[in-house]
Amino acid sequence: MNKNYIEPNEWSIIENGFDAENVEASESLFSIGNGALGQRANFEEDYSGKTFQGSYIGGIYYPDKTRVGWWKNGYPEYFAKVLNAPNWIGIHVVINGNKLDLNTCKISNFQRELNMKEGWLSRSFNAELPSSEKIAVSAKRFISIKYNEVGAIEYNVKAINFSGEIEFSPYIDAGVMNEDANYDEFFWEILEVVEGENSGCILSKTLKTEFHVSTAMEISLAKNNKEVLVAQKTKVEEKKITYSYKIDINEGDVATIFKFGSYTSSLNYKNEDLNSAALSNVQNAKELGFNALLESQIKSWDEIWSTADIVIEGDVKAQQGIRFNIFQLNQTYMGTDARLNIGPKGFTGEKYGGSTYWDTEAYCIPFYMATKDQEVAKNLLKYRYNQLDKAIENAEKLGFTNGAALYPMVTMNGEECHNEWEITFEEIHRNGAMIYGIYNYVNYTQDFSYVPEYGLEVMIAVARFWYQRANYSAAKDKYVILGVTGPNEYENNINNNYYTNYLAKWCIEYTVECLNKVKHDYTNDFDRVMSKTNLTFEETYKWLNVSDNMYFPYSEEHQVYLQQDGFLDKELIPVEDLDASQRPINQKWSWDRILRSCYIKQADTLQGMFLFEDKFKKEEIERHFDFYEPITVHESSLSPCVHSILAASIDRMPKAYEMYLRTSRLDLDDYNHEVHEGCHITSMAGTWMAVVQGFGGMRVWEDGILSFNPQIPKEWKSYAFTINFRGNIIKVYKSQTECKFLNESEKEIKMYVNDTEILIPPKKSIIV
Amino acid sequence: MNKNYIEPNEWSIIENGFDAENVEASESLFSIGNGALGQRANFEEDYSGKTFQGSYIGGIYYPDKTRVGWWKNGYPEYFAKVLNAPNWIGIHVVINGNKLDLNTCKISNFQRELNMKEGWLSRSFNAELPSSEKIAVSAKRFISIKYNEVGAIEYNVKAINFSGEIEFSPYIDAGVMNEDANYDEFFWEILEVVEGENSGCILSKTLKTEFHVSTAMEISLAKNNKEVLVAQKTKVEEKKITYSYKIDINEGDVATIFKFGSYTSSLNYKNEDLNSAALSNVQNAKELGFNALLESQIKSWDEIWSTADIVIEGDVKAQQGIRFNIFQLNQTYMGTDARLNIGPKGFTGEKYGGSTYWDTEAYCIPFYMATKDQEVAKNLLKYRYNQLDKAIENAEKLGFTNGAALYPMVTMNGEECHNEWEITFEEIHRNGAMIYGIYNYVNYTQDFSYVPEYGLEVMIAVARFWYQRANYSAAKDKYVILGVTGPNEYENNINNNYYTNYLAKWCIEYTVECLNKVKHDYTNDFDRVMSKTNLTFEETYKWLNVSDNMYFPYSEEHQVYLQQDGFLDKELIPVEDLDASQRPINQKWSWDRILRSCYIKQADTLQGMFLFEDKFKKEEIERHFDFYEPITVHESSLSPCVHSILAASIDRMPKAYEMYLRTSRLDLDDYNHEVHEGCHITSMAGTWMAVVQGFGGMRVWEDGILSFNPQIPKEWKSYAFTINFRGNIIKVYKSQTECKFLNESEKEIKMYVNDTEILIPPKKSIIV
Q1: Neighbouring residues of B492: CB distance < 8 A, sequence distance ≥ 6
Q2: A592·B73 Cβ contact <8 A
Q3: CA B413, CA B122: separation in Å to the nearest integer?
Q4: How far apart (Å, rounded) are the C-alpha atoms in residues B673 and A608?
Q5: Which residues, in sequence order, are bridge partners of residue B79?
Q6: Which pLDDT belongs to residue B488?
Q7: What is the pLDDT of residue B141?
Q8: Residue A126 and residue B64: Cα distance in Å, rounded?
Q9: Are B569 and A596 inside 8 Å of each other by CB?
Q10: Are A473 and A552 in contact (CB under 8 A)?
């Protein structure tokens, strides 16, 4: 892998020069999407080199048969998997009878650009074919945010050294497979191939899940910037439809094809309307024209950036990194559809079945809450509410009763999509993140109504889970939680994981607190929920007996909570004393060796202190940070951001900055040698938090008051970010010498800055 | 599964009546083998119903690609798997042009018998074909012990209600696959199909491992007991050769085919000699004739039974059960080839890749040591010695250095054949069993020479493993062993498993003890081994520092060693209080629930007390038995035997008998609903121990003295067994009223009976 080939640029991701070794990595990095659908940056024309083809539609999944070496009771037989969708971007390009294929041509002046400010992908290059024709190609493509079922391509070919004929053969190919199919099965059935004049579509449905999708294309052609009408030759195959157009050209002429594509799916239409809707989409797009569509695209992204941008002065790579993170998060999830969520690879790859992890609640909600309307975060919460029945089923499979719920580790539709027992069955702290997400939302927005309307049912089901999952230890005269995996997945089947026990106790207490509030303020909802869940207050007393008597492993000697029982039996050798040849340990060491070592993959005890910072004294956090960080290897993409934020909160800016560097350009610099499989979307929200919560020190304390404590890495000139706080836009600017807050709203805003209360009048700024 | 269909009989396994539901179970139960090769009891003629076809050759394996859901560092990419071999038993039988197929005929008088006394399998039935012909079939088959590459079939068809033509088409089919192939691959390549007159063979080789095998057949035919010569039609296909013979018959006539089959393999021949050797095998067999071969078979089994039989009076099912166990053990392993070992399914199925488990050292060696020449046990030990290099490689993969060895959990050739991290990497107590096997052999035989010649190198490599695997715990000021799975596989990744720590300490101590003895008595061997292993006594002092300071979890309250750290945090609810609907828990509960429960799959702490009984006081064993047995679910086939023996040793005969019943007819009564996959061979040695060591109370104490303490279950009239003790045959008889010892050797034997020393003169018996 040729690392660091991305050109530093404040607003664009740029690749200069063609290197076949980078094709798959670039296909991930230059991916485009609009939250509803997306695609890897595959070439439009044929490419015979190594490539990973991928187009994805949000919410369309397939239950793939589980593959394991040795079956354990409780594994899901099938699980939902991100599905590669029919390809509409393809265009065979033939020059005087010779196929254009970058793998066989001499290429020069190759440049690829992902313009994040405006939301489009472009590519230009000169190619000399083996048959000696020289051409200059430029192509631009985007997935529309405004018309969110539509994408558009402009593809130009200039004849440099010849006259003759250029043949464009745009096609739809529904014969796609998943790279990660467990049994090489085909997941789509083709129902209908519809041909027409310059437009056509294929209706297909997914096997088993029976999602119906129509994939349409519409073509127009131009020569030297003037539309031309060209005779169409149609080829219909079982799973593919291809139109061919031949354009006569002279040396210096430019032949252009515009291709508009669309997906319509049974998530949004009746099956019988899918084809006409898709065809009408592409026809409207063509009538609007490529340029008008592009204008609206630029406008959409301008609106997104107005509330989401982070400006960093004095460090182009840091600027590029943070914008790439924000851009990809927006491409993955726009927040308008409660059926969708934030896949760990977004629309950039298909690794990991399913799309939703506890990352959403623990890492992503703050970003969406602060950069978008609060409905967006609410939709993320509702996603889990809508899957509560499946979470209860999931818990029943594992032997829980009485409406206890265990949310899946990974899911698309509520079904568990993972099958390692130590994760699937034991990494149960995820259940607590569901409740933390609600708490975080209520606290940030002060919109408590979500609790009586939706959240309370989830909270009761999760509290029931914790109550049943803990057991009384006669030896300790306390309640213990045995056999878990904490956020640090480098420990499995451990007892009394501090983070898990803490969350369990907190979940019960917060649920009972909310129950009391709902009883008092939302009588109708209270009656409805108590009746629906068959809950009595007697039951909650039993829960409280567990939470009141929860056991937490603690070391008097080190004055720290221990990650788990027996942690001090390990040899505590700091990471810095570990030979470099041994790292990353997840590539160098066998699993047993990792497990019995002291090394921590990502924040675990510290994750609790990050989420519940206000419950701990600063010295306590320092002590735990000093105990755990030196033995943390940060081999999860979710690790550095949390440590960056905690380090900033205990005034250790060099450490905070070091950790920030590790999170912000993870994919652009391909630290983990795996970007070809797709980008790490959810950890990008952690990068955003590292700036806003870490350097900016933003908090919303339990009393609902906004607070900042801005610091700046000495390597930067300044940084600035924007947040949407309960509908009020606040801009924060911090340089080495100045700290400024601008209240763009119509209301006075009260906040704390460095522990001092300040009031900012409407439309005014204040320098602190 | 229709259980309990096997007729009680002292010497035979008998099935009366045809039930298609029982076909696969009977194919397992009626399996035949001779320690070098074996086969399931598949029908010779075609059968279109459910069947599991299997023929196996000892030592011929295939490295199948590992399949997992999620890869962990350290898993083997490939592992050796028991290989289904070309089928030579098949005979298409056609009556007047109509194929005989029990799945389509009316069947009556069906009987199948496995005669264990004489070592043959027979089958007889009347069939009415859909085309109305009625026939009576009788067939007999065996795998010769004396000519151990050869098997023979006699197959008779009597025409009951018609005249016409019977066509026999015997064949060799090399187009076989493994049922458990991970990727449905074909494992054999066919090299040559050799046709001839009444004989033929196929030469094939295994892919990757390149084992070459020739499979031959030789045919002769008879009518009404007189040999007939019949014209042969030959059909050669790519992977199959078939000869056809038509015999004209009248009503009442009997047509007979004799088929002799043979495998020769590159384990024993040069590749170019395989075909001629196989063809010569079957020709010799034919010349000897079926009846002479059968006579020699009966003689071979008579010799085996003369030292291995256990006679139980007063309980036919118990008698049948123990003989079935002894018979299958002998069919699986005869002990004459140090390249072979005792597969958990023998030649009765292909479940579980690989063939050798720690079962061999912990369960099987005592049986072979006491019922055969001591060379047999020595061959079993040498098997591990020969695989020492691979065990060192295996340890290196997991990060161990300096010649430390970790023997694989399951293997065929030294390579690890299992890939669950909690087993493969963590169930390391198996390494101790390797040393225990040596200790047990030396102690029983007093043949110490095995240690300097072979064993010491293994011991040093294993001691090095334990030294590196333990780590110093500052918190405990002791050495601890973290992250293991004990014999009780219902706990994973636990710390300080008592059994594992005990074995580790013992291994080091025994190794140093042997080192000192070898230094003193075998100077040349000592120098050779020290130089080969680069060992110094300084290194052994470091080992001893670990063994001297090994940590053992102990409960003062219960006065028992704890199975592992934190065991008392569990809810200790006895198995008898568990609802019957919840059992077996391995079928009813998800894995996490099993793990965090207190339930024990098989002896763990008690396994240590079983192996090292002389190191514990009787009261101590009682206390541990009373603590652990009530929470033991005995869901491993290896559990009841150990508990039966321990119960007998603490004078609890009802418990000992209850446990004996669970072990002795496990397969015959198909307790686990899985006998169709094959029989549980290794636990059968545990059944033998339950009689000899349990009821008979046989021990060889550390001073090398033989000792008995016979008891008898009140349900039996008497039992008797024979042991070979250092070349001396001793017969033990115990009834409700009498206890008798017969010394068949030429030497006086000294032994303890009920703690009293007795001397038995040569060829004399003594009643105690």
Answers
A1: A492, A493, B422, B426, B485, B595
A2: no
A3: 35
A4: 47
A5: B64
A6: 98
A7: 98
A8: 48
A9: no
A10: no
pLDDT, averaged across chain A: 96
From the list B668, B677, B624, B670, the residue with the least C-alpha distance to B649 is B624
- Angle, nearest 10°, between helix axes A498-521 and A523-533? 130
Query: Do residues B156 and B138 lie in contact, with contact meaning Cβ atoms separated by under 8 Å?
Result: yes
pLDDT digits (tens, 9 = 90+) for B525-572: 999 999 999 999 999 999 999 999 999 999 999 999 999 999 999 999
Residue type, B7: E
| CB–CB contact A69 B67 (8 Å) | yes
Residue given tokens 């409700």 in the structure block:
B736
The reply to whether B167 belongs to the active site is no
- Closest residue by Cα to residue B257 from B195, B170, B160: B170
pLDDT of B1: 40
Distance CA A650, CA A623 (A): 10
Which domains are delineated in chain A? 34-306 (2.70.98.40), 373-633 (1.50.10.10)
pLDDT score at A353: 62
pTM of the model: 0.94
Distance CA B2, CA B26 (A): 11
User: Between B66, B398, B566, which is nearest A565 by CB?
Assistant: B566
HEC per residue, A478-499: EEECCCECCCCCCCCCECCCHH
| Partner A contacted by B761 (CB < 8 A) | no
Closest chain B residue to the Cα of A76, Cα to Cα: B590
Q: Cβ separation of B569 and A70 shorter than 8 Å?
A: no
Nearest-by-Cβ selection for A69 from B73, B419, B571 = B419
User: Which of A394, A573, A591, A601 is the best mutation test for B, with the most CBs of B within 10 A?
Assistant: A591
Output the pLDDT for position B354: 64
- Residues B443-458 pLDDT 10s: 999 999 999 999 999 9
Q: In chain B, which residue's Cα lies nearest the Cα of A417?
A: B69
List residues bridging with A722 in a β-sheet. Answer: A731
- B-contacting residues in A 379-418 (Cβ below 8 Å): 397-399
Q: What is the pLDDT of residues A591-601, one digit of tens each?
A: 999 999 999 99
Chain B contact probe: residue of A488, A493, A588, A597 with most B CBs at under 10 A: A493
Structure tokens at B418: 């299992």
CB count in 10 Å sphere of residue A248? 13
> Cα–Cα distances in Å, from B147 out to A515, B266, B293?
81, 17, 9
pLDDT score recorded for residue A564: 98
pLDDT tens-digit map of B221-277 = 999 999 999 999 999 999 999 999 999 999 999 999 999 999 999 999 999 999 999
Band of residue B350 on the pLDDT scale cut at 50, 70, 90: confident
Min Cα separation A381/chain B (Å): 28
CB atoms inside a 10 Å sphere around CB A489: 20
Amino acid at A54: G
Give the residues across from A170 on adjacent strands. A91
Here the tokens at position B2 are 């229709």
The 10s digit of each residue's pLDDT in B9-38 is 999 999 999 999 999 999 999 999 999 999
> What are the residue ranges in chain A where pLDDT is below 50?
1-2
CB-based contacts of B696: which residues, under 8 Å, 6+ apart?
Answer: B708, B709, B710, B721, B732, B734
The pairing of strands B706-708 and B749-753 is parallel
What are the DSSP calls for A611-648, one per residue? HTGGGS-HHHHHHHHHHHGGGB---STTHHHHHHHHHH
Percent of the residues in chain B that have a pLDDT greater than 70, as a whole number? 99
Answer whether A759's CB lies under 8 Å from A768's CB. no
Q: Nearest to residue B216, comparing CAs of B204, B227, B232, B205?
A: B204
